[in-house]
Amino acid sequence: MNYKTQNIQNQYINRFLSITKNKYSISIIGVVITLIILINFIVQVVLGQLYVPNFSSVPSVDFFDLKNYEGLSDGWQHEERVLFCVPLRDAAAHLPMFFGHMKNLTYPHNLIDLSFLVSDSSDDTMEVLKQNLKDIQTDSNKAMRFGEIEIFEKDFGQVIGQGFSDRHGFEAQGPRRKLMARARNWLWTVSVKPYHSWVYWRDADVETVPPTILEDLMHHGKDVIVPNVWRPLPDWLGNQQPYDLNSWQESEGGLQLAKTLGEDAVIVEGYVEYATWRPHLAYLRDPYGDPEVEMDLDGIGGVSILARAKVFKTGAGFPAFSFEKHAETEAFGKLCKRMGYSVAGLPHYVIWHIYEPSSDDLKHMEWMAKEEARQLEESKLKQFYDKIWSEGFEDVREDWKNDRINIFKNTDTNKIKNVKVDWSDADNFQYKSPLGKDKDKVLAAFDPSS
Ligand SMILES: Nc1nc2c(ncn2[C@@H]2O[C@H](COP(=O)(O)OP(=O)(O)O)[C@@H](O)[C@H]2O)c(=O)[nH]1
Ligand SMILES: [Mg+2]
């Protein structure tokens, strides 16, 4: 109890004593007033509304009671503000899709503050970002507009390309993850405010996501929570596939592997080089499973993370170094666990990352395109040869059948005598020259080659 409250309490007690000393001054009204004051005092103590400093008379002072921003599981009903962080690199092509999702968000837009970090981009990410923000912030429907928006630009000299195969090669993983960790740390440290209750991380290249994503994650009341992340595939690759393998539960195999590695090593999931035998959130998906089912996690992926802001404010962040043999979001999950926070994933609640072809996929697609052209050419040739064949080797049996009927139509075939030819004497046949009396004349010699 603070000094001012104690003062008030003493005043009431003194007044009560002075009243009781003079028994003649006790009146029913006095007792009633005293009781009302006492009850009011007790209620204030119970509700914890003891004393709120008021700095409105002091220029340039903002006061925040940080216990009001702890993050409730129904934050949207308590006007809780969400800091929405988006790291961007060469993301111009994804931004229209990203803002399509932003417009649909059901969490009150005015309670969402947006924060972007644009790095090492060679496309017009910044310009496209500006245009999309302008469109949404000038929407005639004010409910569409978001709260505060901050954009930061900072290059880290990322040399690994932003193509699918560049990013996902095994060698690229350690350096890339450490750099991304630094980028994420810059982003949240410069943008989180005392009045933020939640921090949400989202990649720009998510293709399908429920508009209720914030409420869907928040209502679980976890300190850190992620959905399952899959990606669609072309039919020839099997239609769909788990995408984010960074969300997992620690395993005995993982711990043993970690012990064998040097202190700067970074284990990355989904590569044969590191067999951890960890249960992955992605592989536990049942398309018909209950989306509310939770799974405790140790490492998490960064495509879509909702965390209580206090997680960051109490010192958790994205290790840009090897922490328990991990970096970035996977190490963030482990760090949060070490700090005693709850970290969970939803195996049957899925959002969909875009499909980007790998360089092998591109080669296969090129082969498929060539094969399609070859088959087309082949079928044209076949048609051509079929035509020639059918014309050159016309089947006239049907025609002959008809002709035969016509030829014999006036003939009673029953009356046709059987003609018998006697060939018995054929071998004795004597050749008679057709020239008769000119038999001395000689037939011209037949030479087939002339
Ligand atoms: N600021 C910043 N953002 C990045 C960088 N690399 C990727 N991003 C963004 O971070 C998010 C995740 O990156 P992405 O390459 O899609 O990761 P992946 O899907 O896990 O391979 C996307 O929104 C990217 O635009 C970077 O070096 N700096
Ligand atoms: Mg991505």
Give an overview in words:
With 450 residues, the protein is an alpha/beta fold. It has two domains: 2-47; 66-356, Spore Coat Polysaccharide Biosynthesis Protein SpsA, Chain A. The chain has twelve helices and ten strands. Strands 1, 2, 3, 4, 5, 6, 7, 8, 9 and 10 form a ten-stranded mixed β-sheet that branches. Strand 2, helix 4 (125-137) and strand 3 (149-153) form a beta-alpha-beta unit. The radius of gyration is 43 Å and the shape is elongated. 27% of the residues are buried. Magnesium ion is lined by residues 203, 205, 353.
Ligand species: guanosine-5'-diphosphate, magnesium ion
Q: What's the number of domains?
A: 2
DSSP summary, beta strand count: 10
Distance between the termini: 133 Å
Mean pLDDT: 89
Membrane topology: Single-pass type II membrane protein
Pfam families: Anp1
Transmembrane segments: 24-47
Family: Belongs to the ANP1/MMN9/VAN1 family.
Give a concise summary.
37% of the residues lie in helices and 13% in strands. The protein has 450 residues and is an alpha/beta fold.
